[in-house]
Write a structure and sequence with these properties.
The chain has helices spanning about 5-10, 15-20, 40-50, 55-60; strands at about 1-5, 25-30, 35-40. A hairpin with a 2-residue loop joins strand 2 (about 25-30) and strand 3. It is α+β, with helices and mostly antiparallel strands and about 80 residues long. It has a domain at about 1-50: 3-Layer(aba) Sandwich (YefM-like fold). The chain has a three-stranded mixed sheet. Antitoxin component of a type II toxin-antitoxin (TA) system. It holds the Pfam family PhdYeFM_antitox.
Length: about 80
């Protein structure tokens, strides 16, 4: 991933966008610190549609015997 200073990114924005579209994202820095990443729109869409871990678990094709069961049930802890 290419790192480019903000002032250079401004001057070469068209080239930065062409690189992102070609699959080469750029990290834009300001005063030496990373501030933003330029990626292609297609890559942004792919990354923004990643399902949550909970949704992945809910979508898993589980059978009744796939998950362990607790032996002995719940305990009375005297609360």
């Amino acid at each position: 991933m290419q790192e480019i200073q903000l002032r250079d990114a401004k001057a070469t924005l068209s080239a930065v966008l062409d690189q992102a579209k070609a699959g080469h994202p750029s990290v834009i820095t300001r005063h030496g610190r990373p501030e933003a990443v330029v990626v292609s729109f297609e890559e942004w869409q792919r990354l923004s549609q990643v399902p949550s871990f909970g949704r992945l678990l809910m979508a898993a094709p589980l059978e009744d015997d796939d998950l362990p069961t607790r032996q002995g049930g719940l305990r009375d802890v005297g609360l």
